[in-house]
């Protein structure tokens, strides 16, 4: 079963329609989905293209995640030097 309550399972009963919003187009999320994802106006979602052409919307900035991966690698490699600098 779904262990993560925030994880959405594919739901064929929910269909999002692209609509005109001012001079742009957008998707309107149902209030139940907004509540389940704990979203509020102004929150940012980042589109991440997946193999096969699907898109995942995530609140985590993929560029930040990549930068943190590089930073963690550097901190591990230079642990001793960083510890000495911290003294």
Note down, in words, how this protein is organized.
With 87 residues, the chain is of the alpha+beta class. Helices cover 34% and strands 18% of the residues. The protein has 3 helices and 4 strands. The strands form 2 sheets. It has a two-stranded antiparallel ribbon with strand order 1-2.
Radius of gyration: 19 Å
Distance between the termini: 49 Å
Describe the main β-sheet briefly.
Answer: 2 strands, antiparallel
Which regions are unreliable across 5 or more consecutive residues at pLDDT < 50? 1-5
Give a quick rundown of the structure.
The chain has helices at about 30-35, 60-75, 80-85, and strands spanning about 20, 25, 45-50, 55-60. It has about 90 residues and is of the alpha+beta class. A hairpin with a 5-residue loop joins strand 3 (about 45-50) and strand 4.
